[in-house]
Amino acid sequence: MRAAQLTAYRQPLTLATIPDPEPPRDGVVLRVLACGVCRSDWHAWSGADPDVVLPMVPGHEYCGEVVAVGPEVTRWHVGDRVIAPFILACGRCGDCAAGNQTTCATQVVPGFTCDGAFAEMIAVAHADANLTALPGTLAPEIAASLGCRVTTAWQALVGRAELKPGEWLAVFGGGGVGISALLLGRALGARVVVVDVVPEKLDYARTLGADAVVNAAEQGSVDAVREITGGGAHVSVEALGIETTTVAAMRALRKMGRMVQIGMPAGDHAQMRLPMDVLYSGQLSVHGTRGMPSWRYPSLLNLIAGGQVDLSPLVTRTIALSNASAELAAFDRPAPPGVAVITDFQN
Question: Which GO terms describe its molecular function (predicted)?
Answer without folding.
Answer: oxidoreductase activity, acting on the CH-OH group of donors, NAD or NADP as acceptor; zinc ion binding
